[in-house]
Amino acid sequence: MIRDTAGTACRRNSPDVGDVGLSVKLTLLTAALAVALPVLLSSCGSSDSAGPATTQAAASTPSILIEDAWVRATVGAKDTTMTAAFMSLTNPGDADIRLTSATSPLAGMVQLHEMAMKDGTMVMREKPGGVNVPAASHTHLSPGGDHVMLMGLEQPLKPGDEVPLTLEFSDGTSRDLTVPVKVFTEEEEHYHPSETPAAK
Amino acid sequence: MTGRPSRRQLFGVAGAAAVGAAAGGAIVAVDNEAPQQPPVRAISPYGEHQPAIAGPTPEHAELVALNLLPETDKAALGRLMRLWSDDIVALADGRPAPGDSTPELAVANVALTTTVGLGPRVFELTGHKPPGLDDLPVMRHDRLEPAWSGGDLLVMVGADDAVSVVHAVRRLVADAKPFATPLWRQTGFWNSTGADGRPVTGRNLFGQVDGTGNPAVGTPDFDHTVWSSDGPEWFRRGTTLVVRRIRMNLDAWDELTRSEQERAVGRTLSTGAPLTGSAEHDELDLQARDADGRLVIAENSHARLSHHSVNDGRRIFRKGLNYVQDNGPTRESGLIFLSHQADVAGQFLPLLARLDAADALNDWTTTIGSAVFALPPGFQADSWLAHELLS
């Protein structure tokens, strides 16, 4: 599945893009961080395991391994033109690798986003330089954290659909994925605010 | 479908189990000072065959049969199998399935396995049906209830831990919702570990050692019995599973004398040894007679009738799960009978017909559910379940 590709339809990441006025759309992605954090468990790996892992994975420079990829469905959302993809990235090698860009034929634009505090509120913004995957470690793209933002969707995505997604990495490799669309119920209150007041 | 091999292969199970709740890929050093490594109970989700089939019977298991929704076509079934394959890998590694709304319930090292089957009707969509994979005819003693019978898909989860089973089933059923809807669910339990920690055959709720006559895993006899070697190409290294829900009349059984109970089975209750032997795995002496000239292993005993030597050498690989079904103050007890064989019609059906005609145990057992499934071969890290059928 690894292939070399060059061109992308995606706008280049640049640090000064900064907050792209998307904080309004923040609700699309911010499950309360407290809720999202447990998703991020199972970080592991260390310099201790780097040696054997590297040997085991490949003789030369192993590329990124991708697991547990999924895209959140847009059906039921107020705005069905955007959503996000999440996944776990594992770097078995001994040099950091960055996820630098992503494209999908279903999305007019794809960006790599992070959640960050700005003036006391959490905002979603393009991540300068892409998403780093440290050597011999994992990076988790999760609701409430870094994610692949799919914008300009031509059609709603419903659970059971699949989204083609191509990821480009700083080591020059490129990965074509077929990512399942799943419901993510925790965030539904953002789409359909409850009449019942939440706990203060 | 996505990047593989898994992190477990790269970093070991300790890595998958390590807890480091920090955003964005924190590095958590492996603690080399840790006093003890727990025994590795994780079972790889990959392999030539679906891994639970030849493995020990799990302590806790749940089976869910689902029917495909009318709009689910072959392509959609492929999407479901890809999705389930990812879930199966994550859950086996102790990671939450992608999009899990209760990720804390995914824990490592509980020997969690997931087995997936395809019912006969699926092959109307796909073709390439394994020969002999048809719903079993209704036997004379059957009292089949639709609520426990049939199904287009089977998902069976087993683990050391009931919480993990329930969680995994919840994810798998939730992810199947766009494609299929549950038809029946059966929950069972089994004890296949002796007091000394060694594996044992296990007992059903009659108290019988149940499953002694199985071919031994890893032998040519086992392979020949279980794995498909002819039929459609995609099904090679697959097997079939018969699921029969057998209600057991414990009240009537308890009224029998111990010798009546042992005579019905043809084995001693204490060890499971044949009445002609002294140890569980002693061969049956089907000719032996007592002082009065009666066969020691009775003509209608279960052990005789199900023995391969009187079934033209046909064998099956038997497993089972005990079940109880409570309804207010009343309890129904029984056995979720599970049988693997390469060919249902060729191996299982003749045996079933024999037992239905004469088995002494029929007086205390009633089959109330029946279903058959083709279990696709296993998948590897770069692939997914049944891709050779559905690609």
UniProtKB/TrEMBL annotation, chain B:
Dyp-type peroxidase C-terminal domain span: 202-378
Entries under Pfam families matching the protein: Dyp_perox_C, Dyp_perox_N
UniProt-recorded Gene Ontology molecular function terms: heme binding; metal ion binding; peroxidase activity
Cofactors named for this entry: heme b
SUPFAM superfamilies linked: Dimeric alpha+beta barrel (SSF54909)
Protein keywords: Heme, Iron, Metal-binding, Oxidoreductase, Peroxidase, Signal
All residue ranges annotated as the Dyp-type peroxidase N-terminal domain in the record: 50-189
GO CC term, one of those recorded: cytosol
PANTHER family: DEFERROCHELATASE, DEFERROCHELATASE/PEROXIDASE
Protein family (similarity comment): Belongs to the DyP-type peroxidase family.
Protein name as it appears in the record: Dyp-type peroxidase
Species of provenance: Kribbella turkmenica
